[in-house]
Amino acid sequence: MDLPVMPPVKPMLAKSVAKIPPGMQYEAKWDGFRAIVHRDADEVVIGSRTGKPLTRYFPELVTALRANLPQRCVVDGEIVIAHEGRLDFDRLTERIHPADSRVRMLAERTPAGFVAFDLLALGDDSLLDTPLAERRAALVGALSGAREPVYVAPATTDTTVAEQWFEQYEGAGLDGVIAKPLDLPYRPDARLMYKIKHERTADVVVAGYRFHKSGPVVGSLLLGLYDSEGALQHVGVCAAFSMKHREELVAELEPLRLADVSEHPWARWAEEEAHESARLPGAPSRWSGKKDLSWVALRPERVVEVAYDHMEGDRFRHTAQFRRWRPDRTPESCTYAQLEEPVRYDLSEVLSAPPSR
């Protein structure tokens, strides 16, 4: 491979802001695997956000990218999998598997797509120092003949359209809007773009915690919600506390600490088969590797209000944020019924939209 921008390349990143800023280019925020694709004739390398290759996990995309990308180019985008009209992140994570036979079986059963939204190089030219507006025009031209499953992400400079996307596209599994300054050069691993994500709150049960990597202070709180059958399901974690708050939480939660985990609703968390019928903390994962997943069990009696952006099935998609304790709420009142469901929106409507508006 001999390209003006060689792998590995870490993608340019975004920082969170509360509102959509004016005077920029806007795109939907895709919920998939960020990937930078290098193509030099038949050679294709799909790089992850960390720079490590994803190529072997998406053999069907390698074929599709050869058929749809220019002969020599570097493209930034997102690998996604659609299911029943919306993005499905869980099916995407299943593809990171050591067995080649399983990867190929899933490639046929749940094929992935690639949504392109930036162009870093074309032919012999690096576009890293080229302003975004020019890179966008070059991307649309270079991929004008692209067909499913390779798409050009819709983009607009109209804030009214961006606000509509922010409200509508969540129903298709997208999780916000990205805003990019029109004169922005491409700067790998720098947070120079802006992301605007949905934020909602929920009252959840604190049923345990994990220690922080630095020592015997709280690293994250383990959160639960009761399902329709009255079972407490693990829905995610709450983290990002100050060190002082982490220390205070250990003392604050000590009266709830269980000496015998067998009395806890998640007592079977260490048994792999138990995870097949319930959501429990410490589920075996290819992502966790040898990470210590042990946790401190608490009597599920405290309720906390947390902020979250959206759900992935029956769990929080990302780490929730602590807002306040809710001594006025009973644990049994913390059910899935309180969660707001976005109005469904067909993903095909997003992917079939014109590249620029």
From TrEMBL:
Record-annotated ATP-dependent DNA ligase family profile domain positions: 114-227
GO annotation, biological process: DNA recombination; DNA repair
Record's catalysed reaction(s): ATP + (deoxyribonucleotide)n-3'-hydroxyl + 5'-phospho-(deoxyribonucleotide)m = (deoxyribonucleotide)n+m + AMP + diphosphate
One annotated GO molecular function: DNA ligase (ATP) activity
Annotated Gene3D superfamilies: DNA ligase/mRNA capping enzyme, Nucleic acid-binding proteins
Highest taxon, organism lineage: Bacteria
Assigned keywords, A-Z: Ligase
Top-level EC class: ligase
InterPro entries assigned: Adenylation_LigC-like, ATP-dep_DNA_ligase, DNA_ligase_ATP-dep_C, DNA_ligase_ATP-dep_cent, DNA_ligase_ATP-dep_CS, NA-bd_OB-fold, OBF_LigC-like
The protein's Enzyme Commission number: 6.5.1.1
NCBIfam families linked: PRK08224.1 (NF006078)
Family under the similarity heading: Belongs to the ATP-dependent DNA ligase family.
Protein name per its UniProtKB record: DNA ligase (ATP)
